[in-house]
Design a protein that fits this description.
By secondary structure, the chain is an alpha/beta fold. It has 2 domains: 166 residues, HUPs (Rossmann fold); 113 residues, 3-Layer(aba) Sandwich (Rossmann fold). The protein is built from 9 helices and 17 strands. α3 packs across α4. The protein binds flavin-adenine dinucleotide. Flavin-adenine dinucleotide binds next to α6, α7 and α9.
C-alpha cells in the first residue's frame, strides 16, 4: 500500500507553498494516504494551514524547542522515526529539502530520488539531468522506503479546502549536538519572494553595474515582480547571491519572466524552463535567449526599459 509522508517546509510560522506542491506530486501516485509532518517549536499554526490542503489525510506535529530552526541534522532523525510504516517520504527540492532529505535518506539506508518532475508509477519517476538538458527515468527499489525531493517548479500547488485531522506525535530519538543554530543572516526585502513570485524581472551582465540595476528594480516594482539575476551579474557583485536564477541558483516557474541583458546560457535557462511567458531584452539579435523567448525586444536595455516603464 502506498502511504506518503511529506515534510512541511515553513518559516516564521507560515507554511511554504512548496508543501502544497509536494502534495500534488504525491497525489500522482494515487496513494492510500498523504500525511504531512510539521516539525517546529510550536507547530500549531503551520499544522492548521497544512490541514487545509486538499488531499491530505492527516497532519502530524512534532513539537520540540530544538525544532525552532530548520537544522537538517536535528530534524532528520525525527523525520526518520516518523517515517516508519510509510512507503514514501517526500520533501521539496528547495534549499530546505535539499539540505534535509539526503540526511533522512541516509538514516533510512536508501538512496534519495532527487528532483521528481513526473510520476510514472509508485516507484518510477522522471527527473532532469545535465542541467535540464536530458530527462532520465529512475526506478526506486520496491522493497524499500522511497525518499524523494519534489521539483517544485514542475508541480502546481494543491488546492485548499481540506480539513485533515491534526495529531501530535512524540518522537523518542537522541538529537545530535554537533550541529547547532548560531544565527540567520538574511537580506531584508519587501519585494515578492523570487522562488514563488508570479512575475520576475532578471538582470544580467548587460546591466553593467550595481547602480544600473536600479532600472531593473524599478521595472520590477512597476510590475509587482520579484528581482532575479544571472550568475554573471551576481559574480560581478551587481546583486546578492540569493537572486541568482539557474542551475546553481533558483529554479523558478513564474507566469512572466523578463530577462534583461541576459544572453541565455543553458545554465541560466535551466532555472526558467517552466516559466510561462518569457520576454527577452537584448541588444544582440543573435543572443540564444531569443530562441526560447515568447517576446523578444532587440535593442539597448537603457532605452527600452524606461520606455516600458512609461508605457506601464
Ligand atoms: C557549472 C555552471 C553553473 C552555472 N550556473 C549558472 C546559473 O545558475 N545561472 C546563470 O545565470 N548562469 C550560470 N552559469 C553561468 C553561465 O554559463 C553564463 O556565464 C551566465 O549565465 C551569463 O550571464 P549573462 O547572460 O548575464 O552574461 P553574458 O553571457 O555576458 O550576456 C550578457 C548579455 O547582455 C547583452 N547586453 C549587453 N549590454 C546590453 C545593453 N546595453 N542592452 C541590451 N543588452 C545588452 C549582451 O548582448 C549579452 O547577450 C553557470 C556556469 C557553469 C559552468
Amino acid at each position: 500500500m502506498t502511504t506518503i509522508l511529506i515534510v512541511a517546509e515553513h518559516h516564521d510560522g507560515k507554511l511554504n507553498a512548496s508543501t502544497a506542491k509536494c502534495v500534488t506530486a504525491a497525489k500522482a501516485l494515487n496513494p492510500a494516504a498523504i500525511d504531512i509532518v510539521v516539525l517546529a517549536a510550536d507547530p500549531a499554526g503551520v499544522a492548521a494551514e497544512a490541514a487545509q490542503i486538499d488531499g491530505v489525510s492527516k497532519v502530524l506535529t512534532v513539537a520540540n524547542a530544538a525544532n525552532a530552526n530548520a537544522i537538517a541534522q536535528v530534524l532528520a532523525p525525527q523525520v526518520a522515526k516518523v517515517a516508519a510504516g510509510y512507503s514514501h517520504v517526500f520533501g521539496p527540492s528547495t534549499t530546505f529539502g535539499k539540505d534535509l532529505m539526503p540526511c533522512v535518506a541516509a538514516l533510512l539506508g536508501v538512496s534519495q530520488v532527487s528532483d521528481v518532475m513526473a510520476v510514472e508509477g509508485t516507484h518510477t519517476f522522471k527527473r532532469p539531468i545535465y542541467a535540464g538538458n536530458a530527462i532520465v527515468t529512475v526506478e526506486a527499489a520496491v522493497d524499500r522506503v522511497v525518499v524523494a525531493t519534489v521539483r517544485t517548479a514542475s508541480w502546481a500547488e494543491a488546492a485548499r479546502g481540506g480539513s485533515a485531522a491534526v495529531e501530535a506525535v512524540s518522537v523518542d530519538t537522541a538529537l545530535p549536538t554537533h550541529t547547532r543554530y548560531v544565527g540567520l543572516a538574511a537580506g531584508k526585502s519587501d519585494r515578492p519572494d523570487l522562488q514563488s513570485a508570479g512575475r520576475v524581472v532578471s538582470g544580467g551582465r548587460g546591466v553593467g553595474s550595481a547602480e544600473n540595476f536600479r532600472i531593473v528594480y524599478d521595472l520590477a516594482d512597476k510590475l509587482g515582480a520579484a528581482v532575479g539575476a544571472s550568475r554573471a551579474a551576481v559574480d560581478a557583485g551587481y546583486v546578492p547571491n540569493e537572486l541568482q536564477v539557474g542551475q546553481t541558483g533558483k529554479i523558478i516557474a513564474p507566469e512572466l519572466y523578463v530577462a534583461v541583458g541576459i544572453s541565455g546560457a543553458i545554465q541560466h535557462l535551466t532555472g526558467i524552463k517552466d516559466a510561462g511567458t518569457i520576454v527577452a531584452i537584448n541588444k544582440d539579435a543573435d543572443a540564444p535567449i531569443f530562441e526560447i523567448a515568447d517576446i523578444g525586444l532587440v535593442g539597448d536595455l537603457f532605452k527600452i526599459l524606461p520606455e516600458l516603464q512609461d508605457a506601464l
